Amino acid sequence: MKALFTQKLTVLNAGLASFASNIERAGGEAIAMNWQPPAGGDRQGGLALAELLNQPEIELANQTAMERYLAAQPMLVDVMLAGEAIPTLAEKKLILHAGPPIPWQEMCGPVQGAILGAILFEKWADDLEQAEALIHAGEVTFEPCHHFDAVGPMAGIISRSMPLWVVENPNNGNERVYSNFNEGLGKVLRFGANSPAVIERLEWMGTELAQAMKAMLVQSGPIELKPIMAQALHMGDEVHNRNAAATGLLLKQLVPALLNTAEPKEQIQRVISFITANDHFFLNLSMAACKCMLKAAENIPNSTMVTVMARNGVNFGIRLSGTGNTWFQAPANPVDGLFFPGYGVEDAAADLGDSAITETAGVGGFAMASSPAIVKFVGGTPIDATNNSRAMQAITLGGNPAFTLPALNFAPTAAGIDARKVADHSVLPIINTGIAHKQAGVGQIGAGITTAPMQCFVDALQTFAAQREH
């Protein structure tokens, strides 16, 4: 084809590749743009987004939410049984689970298996058949952990006799949040296992381990969690899927205080052995710290800052500061990751757990640049990890100077997800996550990368815009 242009024409192509081909055949140059329509192409969502951009009252509200999140200082202050910390659990047969609300019949295998295990642990039934019969009779009820300011990884199960970490924020009226204890790897309740060995471990955790941790805190006093997380980021953790450094740093504070307690020497030895054998021990404290920071940013009128992201193995749910306790849900996106030998995508449950609270707070997947070794667990390359951290800057309100990334010249982690920016830039929050087998009790079968579904943010913005109209 004869060139049509006397001077070379350069255009930006935001459409189909065939548009660019015609320009190039005519002698011009086309530069492809990685562009997608806002709000995932949802017309009503796009209109809601247009109403919410560049609104002074929203910018001010988001600034307030961000300031409260940054000012939070999560402190580990106590260990309590769940029925004491959350009285509603002691009043009825209630079990808390990860993610947004979901009825029993729609739950995934690991969550159902973990709930049955919790019923056996509480001695409400003698065997699995009796436990399931209680559920079908309507004698056991279920609610998300987040409804009680609690978080739990994977299935996230909390019942009345389980021990909880108690984390307070002195800069927010000493409001409390809670997390359960980490059981370690293998056949564990959070992956749906409910064998006698699992129940026996839970009973030990609720007695010896909990007693030792409570006594330790009497000796040590409150433990600041943000400094541990910050230092761990400089030591190769991202404090979601990798907590080896954070657990070691915690141990440095636990052991001297434990040795000053009156607990029997043999008990202290068992406790220290349990913690040192579990690199994920700090995960639940990381989650509680992140929940504590984000709780300070909740319920600020006109704020589009995301305060919760959570998954129940079927659906993904988010909450915004300005819409309070309302959940916005969509089917959980698949996980792109590495599977253990013998397993594949056909074996996997959908994304599961409250641990995405770490990404909501600007660590985890948002801080992957600090943890190049994580790619050997979740897939990709160290460059991918760095690019993921950079990409999150497009959808956040700012950075958290308490958490810095050495690989990015100690830049602060991107933090404060703005639902408007997610929809406007078509960039989804990235999450690194473990992969559970879809059948209860098999356990973890891999790990990888996933994202929050766009529909959650589109629905949230439409509801947010409608509230402003009224």
Automatic annotation (TrEMBL):
<dbReference type="InterPro" id="IPR009499">
    <property type="entry name" value="AllG-like"/>
</dbReference>
<dbReference type="Pfam" id="PF06545">
    <property type="entry name" value="AllG"/>
</dbReference>
<dbReference type="InterPro" id="IPR024033">
    <property type="entry name" value="OXTCase_su_AllG_h-dom"/>
</dbReference>
<protein>
    <submittedName>
        <fullName>DUF1116 domain-containing protein</fullName>
    </submittedName>
</protein>
